[in-house]
Design brief:
globular; 8-stranded parallel beta barrel; two-stranded antiparallel sheet; 43% helix; 17% strand; TIM Barrel; single chain
Length: 323
């Protein structure tokens, strides 16, 4: 079992994210996972630094900790040729510590280029084509590609790492799990649903499974729940909402009825390690073996100290279900 720390680009500015990554390495985390957004989920969060610039700085200022995008959409806001180049460069800068986490995107971030927001079946086809282009470019040489939605003309990534970065593909159902199995090296999810892992395994997927565990560290349960309610209530909206709404103001409206008790039910709030293990265990039981702590609490430094002293070693003892 590996334990990761979520760097929330929506919640903190770039310099603070770098400081948190350095502190996460010192605290003993195996990797940091970093969201790749153009907009925050809520206006209260107030940030959206360019993930790839921050990742490069983190790679230069750390030595051991793994780096994961959680997740990048390689088919709309970015052309897959750019993602292939960026990921190859990150793999070189980090000396093999980088994992490319990818997904089919959310309207919140991808609509900004003015291309519209396709139906989910079209997004999945575009996503599949994007992954095929990335794989093609990582083979080296000049490459071209003619897909239904995406094209590539005489492109070559000159700086390639000795080994291709692992690709972790986000999935929420059977269709996306099949894409993860066929074109990815690992699975990425935000829900503790065993069927996501089952679909992935049934489609032939053999790689590790990344999953985000919602927590809100604070001096007491109420303080943690209030912080999560203010800044992370979007996490309770569900994937069908999260992928479709265009702007933070829409998420504010969609989550206006979320209550503190709803947060307490979903998040581990406060500072009791047993509650954190209780919330994390269903993810391990579902078959995930890369657990990412997504902290919605008000003091990230205190949370990292808590993880170092009381939590990481206990989380490592969780056993993923055999598949």
């Amino acid at each position: 079992m590996q334990i990761g720390y979520k760097l929330a680009t929506e919640q903190y500015g770039p310099q603070e994210l770098i400081r948190q990554a350095i502190a996460a390495e010192a605290a003993g985390f195996d990797f940091v996972e970093m969201s790749d957004h153009y907009h925050p989920w809520l206006n209260e969060q107030g940030h959206s630094a360019f993930t790839w610039s921050v990742l490069g700085a983190i790679a230069a200022k750390t030595e051991r900790i793994g780096l994961v995008t959680g997740v990048t959409c390689p088919s709309m806001r970015y052309h897959p040729a750019i993602v292939a180049q960026a990921a190859a460069t990150m793999a070189l800068i980090s000396e093999g510590r980088f994992v490319l986490g990818v997904g089919s995107g959310e309207r919140l971030n991808e609509h900004v280029t003015g291309r519209g927001w396709p139906a989910v079946s079209e997004r999945h086809t575009m996503f599949r084509e994007a992954l095929e282009i990335i794989r093609l470019l990582w083979q080296g040489g000049y490459r071209s590609y003619e897909g239904t939605y995406l094209r590539l003309e005489d492109a070559r990534v000159f700086d390639l790492p000795p080994e291709q970065p692992m690709i972790a593909v986000a999935a929420s159902g059977a269709a996306s799990s099949r894409i993860a199995a066929e074109l990815g090296d690992a699975l990425f999810a935000t829900e503790e649903k065993p069927e996501i892992v089952r679909h992935y395994r049934e489609a032939g997927g053999t790689g590790p499974g990344y999953a985000e565990v919602p927590v809100a560290f604070a001096g007491n349960e109420s303080e943690g729940a209030q912080s999560a309610l203010t800044y992370f209530r979007w996490a309770l909206s569900g994937w069908k909402v999260m992928s479709e709404l265009p702007n933070p103001v829409n998420f504010e409206a969609a989550t206006a009825q979320v209550r503190e008790e709803d947060i307490r039910e979903r998040f581990a709030c406060g500072n009791d390690p047993s509650r954190y293990l209780e919330v994390a265990k269903p993810f391990a039981d579902a078959g995930f073996d890369r657990l990412v702590l997504m902290n919605a609490g008000p003091d990230p430094r205190a949370f990292l100290d808590f993880c170092d002293a009381e939590l990481i070693s206990r989380l490592r003892e969780l056993k993923p279900a055999k598949s």
